[in-house]
Amino acid sequence: MIITGKHLSRRTILRGMGAMVALPALDAMTPALAAAAGKKAGTPPLRLAFAYVPNGVTMESWTPAAEGASYELTRILKPLAPVKDRVLVLSGLEHNNGNALGDGPGDHARAGAVFLTGVHCRKTAGADIKNGVSVDQIAARQVGSATRLGSIELGCEDTRIVGNCDSGYSCAYTNSLSWRSDTTPQPPETNPRAVFERLFGADAGLDPATRAQRLRTRRSILDFVGERSAALRNDLGANDRRKLDEYFTSVREIEQRIAQAESHNSDWLPEMEKPSGIPETFAEHVSLMFDLQALAFQADITRIATTMIAREGSTRTYPEIGVADPHHPLTHHRNNPEWIEKVTQINEFHMGLFAKFIQKLASTPEGDGTLLDHSMIVYGSGIADGNKHTHLDLPVLLVGNGGGALAPGRHIRYGKDTPMTNLYMTLLDRMGVRPESVGDSTGHVQHLANV
Amino acid sequence: MGAYRRMHGVRVLRFLALAVGLALTGSVATRGQAPAPASPTAPPAATGAAPSVAHPSAGGTAAKPAIQRRSAVPGHSFDSLVKPFVAEHCASCHGTRRQKGGLNLAAYDSLEALTNDADRWEMVVQKLRDGEMPPEDEEPRPTPKQVTELTGFVEREIAKADAARPPDPGRVTTRRLNRTEYNNTVRDLLGVDIRPADDFPNDDSGYGFDNIGDVLSTSPLLVEKQLAAAERIARTAIFGTGALKPSLTKLPMLNARVVESKDVPERYDQTGLTMANAAHATYRVPVEAEYVVRLVTSGRRPQGSEAMTFALWVDGTKIAEELLDPSLGAGFEPGEQELSGRRVEFRVKLTAGEHWIAGSPLRMFEGMPAKFGGPSPSKLPPPAPPEFKPRPGMTAEQIEFAKKRFEARLTERMVVNTPRVGGIEVIGPYGYEGKPSAASRALIYTCQHPGPHVDACRLPILSKLARRAYRRPVTKDEVGKLVALAENVSRETGSFDEGLTSAVQAILVSPDFLFRVERGEPRLVTSRTRTGAPAALGVKLTQHELASRLSYFLWASMPDAALSAAADRGVLRQPLVLGAQVTRMLADPRSATLGEHFAGQWLQVRALESASPDREKFPDFDHYLRTSMRRETEMFVAAIVREDRSILDFLDGKFTFLNERLARHYGIDGVSGTDFRRVALPVDGVRGGVITQASVLTVSSYATRTSPVLRGRWILDNILAAPPPEPPPDIPNLDDKGVGTATSVRQQLEQHRADPTCASCHKRMDPLGFGLENFDAIGAWRTADGQVPIDSSGTLPDGRTFTGPKELRTILVSERDAFSRAITGKLMTYALGRGLERGDRRDVAKMAKAIAADKYRFSSVVRQIVNSPAFQMRRADVKPAPVADPVDTRTAEQHPAPPAREPGSAKPGTPTQEPGR
User: Fold this and answer.
1) A47 to chain B, closest Cα gap in Å
2) How far apart are CA B523 and CA B538, in angstroms?
3) Which of A326, A383, B746, B753 could form a disulfide with A315 if both were Cys (CB 3.0 to 4.6 A apart)?
4) Do B219 and A279 count as a contact with CB atoms less than 8 A apart?
5) Do B223 and A324 touch (CB under 8 A)?
6) What would the mean pLDDT of B744-754 be, rounded to a whole number?
7) Does residue B339 belong to any structural domain of this protein?
8) Where does a domain end: B516, B541, B562?
9) pLDDT at position B666 over 90
């Protein structure tokens, strides 16, 4: 079990966290305060998260036959069996702005760009990219100030690709799901180590006794340095003194921040080893990113997260499940049953990793319930059928109870012309965020809370 | 390239202004730092007559020899000559009412005021002499005779005032170790080579270098990183890193663009390494261990091709090959094998440190079906023709269309063979235990006794470490505090090593380690001015401070045992000892930092790292080419240093270092393989010296095109010691789109020079750049730019003309004195860590002559600098108790002085007691 809060003497931790990495550590104090505030009010906060899989899915093995509560999990959805009562399968939602609309090929770029924005992105491989603000960022603008990080963006595939990624579309469209403004994508962080350090500070993975000891040592060292600087400064000329003063002031500033941090309280540290970097296998990588997301929710460091399991158009191969062929070409299977089978295996593999994450949230207690009770997590793709590049009847799941606002455990089919963004409008509303519209939204979706 | 643009920044502007006294905004600072004249009205022709070249004429025209004729016309005075001239020809724009360019020449009311602001008046002289001022349309115009009289008078008076000024070793502000120096010092101090400072914020640069005391600042962020680094370094040295879990790193890379073709080339590089199909990266392997290197492929092969071979290359050597058979996998189109996302893995042992890692397809045109006409065709049976299957839901019309397209694809010759390595991932280390290195242990555990360490070991161990880390003898009190810290932590943790670690951390964040504090010897050294007036010179550096200056100059690192020993014995200042140390240090591999860091910044080739030539125009440019370019220049510089060659080789060296990749880029035959080797350049004279190396040509270009302006400026600044002033703000760029089609860069620049404001500088810069127009923006030879044929002729302001790089070089070589000053000035700036001042530039001019007399040998430049008072002394801080001390002629031979009299009151001195120990 990774997610267990660990209690330490308040003074020990706080002294040290500041000393160790002054800036992040100071920041790290605030979420605890926010969490404390939330707890005082009595209601755990609501979380909103998105997980993305590329290249569509084998829809025949995704969509349940029956609607309502009595539906049976299909082959791809099977891994969700232990948490079936926490899942809404939503059929019939569409992203019309993922279609060409006169712009020709480039469905993968459009699918990635449209998924959280509902906007038809500008066809360009240059710097003049234009998309829309994504739903997670609309939410983060309003609720993000309550936590230390407004939102986090995680990814399991490299996003440093630049230039033309798909038929004249900039790689920016497939690098990022999340868009802070219509011209500013928020590329995901792919290195779990960097995510860990951003969330908890560089030292948080050590055992408590070691951590406390190191912190005391650092403090002694700062004392030593401060003393030495003061002595040195007195016998230098003006220019040299100015240089030493910059240094001395910096040392003092760090000391002050430690003192400041000491006046705050925090009793939560993750009991998780600091990741050394990107793990060897893809499955470990995805799991680790989901673990970090769960920790970030648990510690209330952020309430908004997006996870790109793989980038749109991904050509990743999956030798670990016996699929040596690249994903994207496989999805252009031209009805070759062997290829369809391999695509379905990849879909199941992704779902298995996601289901583990959901189970983790479902087994993490919070307030009177679990983390999953206070979450709304969307899983899906901007393409339905990868062979045909369709953006209608997308594969979409909504998981979690939304703090009581959702009534999961059902398969809902929406009528023709229901934009995916109507779902986002409804989720934002549950978060207390009420924009006029999101992308091409025409209103809200019904039936999430009632049968 | 953004280099020129960046240089327009205010900060750089100020530094440049300080350095050359050209830009108007800098003059206040210049004036403020200039030593006060001992006697501005000193009688003119005293003992040391002004040399014929007072100092390199700042901002002087590149092509114009610095030597100026001056007539000895007696009888002129400031009042009779300068005042009326200014009033009549200058003051309407540069007077009390208007101060164009911030210049008020009417404000100078005495000869003293004029000579006190010599830098600015030299600029005035330059502009008058060039005819740039007064502007053409101003009346009345001064006669040529009037101009000659005035400029001659001003130069003479400035030279006299200079001669009367006391020599001044200058003042180096305490220098913080920059990132390079920090990394190297930690490596040499503790045997930990993990480049911890690579995470630190970038060091700011001034005067073109990133080791300038005044500019290197310290922020809380930096100190925070230094604290974290100290912990990491100390733990690595004493405990090792601990076992490391394997993790995956995608190597950042810049790939060339594969230009798709339907043809099988007759000749191609069978190793694939120099082709766009390979991928190259530089990776710093953290620890020696086993790693999995994974090549991620992409591209296509025709169906029916045999499995193909991919190779892994480490540092240019083929390590292993693996077969990849994509024949049975999924593909986008029928008839093609798809390589996207496939992986070829190699498990290899890698040593720690930076490696060049590359992956390439081998013999990539072999093994294709015979119909493609490639060598060694596939022996597999031809694949069954794919069957046309309409997609469900297609209309009859759509089916018809799709079928036609499908059939056309089968018969058409298509783009057939584009396998490539698109990415490289390294996973590891495997089986690394993370014990501390033997080198680290040997450097730390100097307390030699058998058995476990006892409390008594702390003192000797920490004394030695602190002595080395602080680069000077340490006091009992200093070491006592470290020992106390270690003791405390040992007591708390029950571990001797934990205690030691804390003390090492403390050493590494102590200001004594992070800064190079110089105080100098207690006794003031005095000298005389050239007019015979006594004046203070400053204080000599201590032996250990001198040792540090030497080691950070030549190695960018701390002194080694031999150098420290010479300082301990107090003999380092002896000319024979010092000379021998310089010889030894230049021969040491660590002097490669001169190529990497000095030359990298002087020649600006460091900017290659961030150069990103346009991918459409220069599809060839990849990481391999970029590192090859850098390597050529580094090796060329290293050869000049190591072989102690003439610095004129920088201008016109007849040799260089090439590998196959770069040789192909240059169009030079007979170089194959990855190894760099010395190559005699063809006699056609196209290439020679650094100016025609691809590295320099690339960093002095824009991403999409060449810039004669940038290149001309580069030459003026780096070769001719005559940088032009910064351009005025808000000047428009050239019309990029027009270049190569409607007009040439040259034509656009010619229009530009029609504006007299622009012309004054551009007539100096542009022609030099035109001479290099045959080299494109990544340094390849060309005879046309788009549709416009190249015209590589130029006319210098003094009327000399040339065509092409060879003739341009001849002109540059004829300016060898200017070049000698340029390189000496740059190297001196780097050695001192401060901008050069007026007096320094005067000294540089003298050094340049001595260097010429020593056949322009590189070591001569180094020795001139090392032997200069500026290098061996510093201006005294505090007013001294009067000490009469004859000048040490060994250190100040440039300022031969008669027996000292009373030290002049104008100079500060230093206290008598040994400071701060």
Assistant:
1) 31
2) 9
3) A326
4) no
5) no
6) 76
7) yes
8) B516
9) yes
B424 and B469: one domain?
Answer: no
Residues 6 or more apart in contact with residue B348 via CB below 8 angstroms: B290, B291, B292, B293, B312, B314, B319, B320
CA distance A99 to A94: 10
**pLDDT tens across A118-160, in order?**
999 999 987 889 999 999 999 999 999 898 889 999 999 876 6
Among B494, B516, B538, the domain boundary falls at B516
Task: State the best of B247, B283, B297, B485 to mutate against chain A, taking most chain A CBs within 10 Å.
Answer: B247
Please give the tally of structural domains in chain B: 3
Q: Which positions in chain B touch A346 (Cβ < 8 Å)?
A: none
Asked if pLDDT for residue A330 goes beyond 90, the answer is yes
User: What residue of A is the nearest CA neighbor of B519?
Assistant: A236
Please check whether residues B362 and B451 belong to one and the same domain.
Answer: no
Read off φ and ψ for residue B353, nearest 5 degrees. Answer: 110, 180
Do B259 and B227 lie in one domain? The reply is no
**In chain A, what residues touch B502 (CB-CB under 8 Å)?**
217, 220-221
Show the domains of chain A with their CATH numbers. 1-39+206-268 (no CATH), 43-204+274-430 (3.40.720)
Disruptive mutation site among B199, B218, B616 for chain A (greatest number of A CBs within 10 Å): B218
| Structural domain that includes position B394 | 247-430
Least confident of B69-78, B452-461, B767-776, B797-806: B69-78
How many residues does this entry show for chain B?
917
For B518-557, how does the pLDDT look when each residue is reduced to its tens digit (9 = 90+)? 989 988 887 665 566 556 678 999 999 999 999 999 999 9
Residues of A in contact with B485 (CB under 8 A): 220-221, 224
pTM of the predicted protein model: 0.79
Same domain for B300 and B358? yes
Distance from CA of B769 to the nearest CA of A (A): 31
ipTM summary value? 0.79
Averaged pLDDT of chain A: 86
Judge if B187 and B226 occupy the same domain: yes
Query: Residue A159's pLDDT is what?
Result: 66
Residue A82 amino acid letter: P
Amino acid occupying residue B700: S
The HSE-up count of residue B900 (CA atoms within 13 Å, CB side) is 20
> What was the pLDDT predicted at A39?
44
What is the separation, in whole angstroms, between the first and last Cα of chain B? 49
Cβ pair A250:B218 closer than 8 A: yes
Q: Which residue is it, tokens 């090593």?
A: B497
Q: Which of A225, A236, A333 has its CB closest to that of B509?
A: A225
Put residue B49 in one of left, alpha, beta given phi > 0 → left and psi -120 to 50 → alpha.
beta
Residue B317 sits in the same domain as residue B418: yes
Q: Which single residue is written with the structure tokens 């030497």?
A: B550
Distance from CA of A231 to the nearest CA of B (A): 9
Provide the pLDDT for residue B506: 97
The answer to whether A225 contacts B510, with C-beta atoms less than 8 Å apart, is yes
